[in-house]
Amino acid sequence: MADKTLTCRDCGAGFTFTEGEQDFYAQKGYSEPMRCPSCRAAKKAARTGGYGNSDSYGGGGGGGGGGGSYNGYGRSERAMTQVVCANCGKDTEVPFVPRGDKPVYCSDCYSELVGSRGGGGNRNRY
After folding, report:
1. Tell me: the pLDDT tens digits for 5-15?
2. What tens digit of pLDDT does each residue of 58-82 get?
3. Which of 13, 18, 58, 126 is least surrounded by Cβ atoms within 10 Å, i.e. has the fewest?
4. What DSSP designation does 56 have?
5. Are 55 and 24 contacting, i.e. CB atoms less than 8 angstroms apart?
6. Whole-model pTM over 0.90
7. Coil, strand, or helix at residue 73?
8. Whole-number Å distance between alpha carbons of 44 and 4
9. What's the rounded Cα separation, in Å, for the pair 48 and 67?
10. Helix spans in the chain (H)
């Protein structure tokens, strides 16, 4: 099996699907990737609200001077976004970029809303 050059469905760039990656994908029963590594990382970050690979759940960064990266993916400081609370109108900061299709609340209003629903203890804060 030789390396393959695939075309990313998002950006149109060609990327190499190595022999080792092909073996791994075959062992796991995965189909060929449709996005280049950059677009896959961007899609994953968008899906997880920008949190990506958080090292707060163990691991510790992978053996000796990780230099701000985790599992090979670059990770920069979390950017805060200035927003206006949809409930009280107060200026606040949130650790994500709102999509625009859902309201964003300050922490006080969010706590009230989650508390009034009856036990949102396992829900994400934002």
Report:
1. 999 999 999 99
2. 444 444 444 444 445 556 667 788 8
3. 58
4. G
5. no
6. no
7. strand
8. 23
9. 23
10. 19-28, 37-47, 107-116
Residue ranges of alpha helices (H) inside 30-125 are 37-47, 107-116
Q: Exposure pattern of 14-26 as b/e (b: 16+ CB <10 Å)?
A: ebeeeeeebeeee
* Distance from C-alpha of 74 to C-alpha of 25, rounded to nearest angstrom: 23
Q: Record the tokens describing residue 126, joined without a space.
A: 């934002």
Structure tokens at 84: 């206006």
Residue labelled with tokens 């029963």: 29
How many separate helices (H) and strands (E) can be counted in the chain?
A: 3, 6
Length of the chain as a residue count: 126
Report the C-alpha gap between 97 and 5 in whole angstroms. 34
